Amino acid sequence: MNRLSAWVAVLFCIVSISASAQRFKISRVTIDDLAAKHYSLDSSAEAVVLGDYGAVEITYNDTKGYFAIHRRIRRLKILKKSAYDRASVAVTQYRRGADSEQVIRNIKGKTYWLENGEMKSEDMSKSAIFTTKTDKNFYETKFTLPHVQEGCIIEYEYDIISDFVMQLPEWDFQTDIPVKYSEYYATFPPKLSYRAVFQNPVDLVTKDFSDNTNTGMSMRYAVKDMPALRPEPYITTIEDYKTRLRFELIEAMVNGRVQRFSQSWPDVDKKMAEDDEVGSYIRKTAFLKEAAKTIRSKYADTLSIITEAHRYIRTNMTWNGRVSYWSGSTPRTVFEQKTGNSAEINLLLVGLIRELGFDATPVILSTRSNGAVFMEIPMTSYFNDLVGLTYIGGKEVLLDATDTFLPLGVLPDRCLTRIGRIVDSRRANWVYLKPTLNRQVKTLQYTLDESGVIKGSISYNWQGEMASRHRNSIQKSGIKKFGKELIKQPSAEVGESKVEYADEIDKPLVVTTDVSYEEGFNKVGDRIYLSPSLGEALAINPFKYDKRLYPVDFGNPSEEVFMANIKIPQGYVVESSPATQVVLLPEDGGRFTYQAQMHGDDIINIVTRLQLKKPIYSSEEYPYLKKLMDMVIAKNSEQIILKKK
Fold first, then answer.
1. Reduced to 3 states, what is the DSSP secondary structure of residue 209?
2. Cα dist from 94 to 100, 134, 239, 404, 598, whole Å
3. N or C, which end of the chain has less CB nearby within 10 Å?
4. By the 8 A CB rule, do 572 and 641 touch?
5. Do 110 and 155 touch, CB atoms closer than 8 A?
6. What structural domains does the chain harbor?
7. What is the pLDDT of residues 33-84, one digit of tens each?
8. 281 contacts 331 by C-beta, under 8 angstroms
9. Confidence class of residue 492 from pLDDT cuts 50, 70 and 90?
10. What are phi and psi of 157, to 5 degrees?
């Protein structure tokens, strides 16, 4: 069969899948649809997907072999001007030579709108469609629907013919705007067997499944009334919480034999352990024996030896900013160049600890921005980063040397995604990526002048991963600029800043800055009204919505202590001050305490402590967390009232 004949076969299949798409009960656009001013289930939505229909069919011909045809039909209502850009659509295609490619075909689009109570429509012009090459193997087809306005409905469709049947595109039932209805239909030939994997499954409107030896396998799924996935603070990636469907090729009949493609975790473990760029890499670090010998000559106990090995790698190597779970160069080359990606640096650390005679192994993981690892589905494609693991006194100690200022056992924030996989075929298992406490103590010491001037200092004390971040900022910008950026009130005059323990990563980082305020409080008659935090305490709740669909993931547990030592003007007494308060989260998940008291006749001491004891709070715990933050902010806004004697 020649190339033309192959495309004739493809076109026939497109007709076939178009026919199968008729299974979708796609209603006509009505005047009522166009007249709607907002979406009833989410009045704040800028747009709503009225219907999203997808179909995939795997077929075969003698020239192309197996290939997939994907079809999509999407209808969307524009409710606000801010959604106009949703009428511009971009579809990416991957091409690796003429026989391994994705090609888009049959693009159509149409816009409907009301004009004097009458429905109007306009088809998208072919001139609105253009394709550009964006990378060596990637192309992007863009098109824009015409006549976009508030209240209009846009509809578009296209087919993608793909030679890649091992990994099919995922289908998202949920997006950043509400979805009224979404449906996906898949058909597979008898010789290919796929498994459907749901992420964050919901109650289905439709779920059909059939598997026949002669006709193959078919699946159909539909959902309705999916809420929008809104951006929220403190998450890993929004993709972790999206309801979506993906397919994994389990096995195929090839030349009369069954070939399995689905992996088990032991398969993944074996592959990683034997890979020259991962597991076998650490068996090529004999050149580190001299460094190991020097370390051994200086230290005797295990903790000191491993701490020095960690210091040796993190100070001799510079991370190039790229995360990876494999190396692109030999260990010696990386070491001689003094720079590398996260895997290259951490594999050197694992290798050095092994040269020292201690047990150490790589751990592969997925970063927070890359998304969660699903333990039920063995796939190497989940992973994108690598750290190390060793043992001191029988306890696990996680290793990362990409950050010059991170102490032993503390992982960068990007790595705090709950679990990683040990790369060792003999004892491969999951390891908990243990977070560490982030602690901040902020101390204000200042004197009030009756004229309204406040003079004093603000001191910051940081421990944990937070200290590392600030050490890096000081190194980059200098203490003078860093000190000025710390002060939140623009009216403050910032003086000299000094830093303690800038390079001693096993100690807290301390920064102290002199400050003064020309009008630091309100004076009315014989009374002074003072906000004791001077605007340096939490004032805005990061949690704005009453409900949340996904967990609050801080990465680390935290503790924030605020202390203020205030010397009041001579001749004044405290008329009123905030009352002591204690607020607890359920099941000891956290607490907030506030205490104000006098020391002598002229010193007011304020101490607050906010403890968030868990790195992750569930969506069910979210209302309590939000309420706690509201109470913290309300308490921080209370004033001290001084009265002249």
1. strand
2. 8, 10, 21, 39, 70
3. C
4. no
5. yes
6. 3-260 (2.60.40.3140), 265-432 (3.10.620.30), 438-644 (2.60.120.1130)
7. 999 999 999 999 999 999 999 999 998 887 778 899 999 999 999 999 999 9
8. yes
9. confident
10. -150, 155
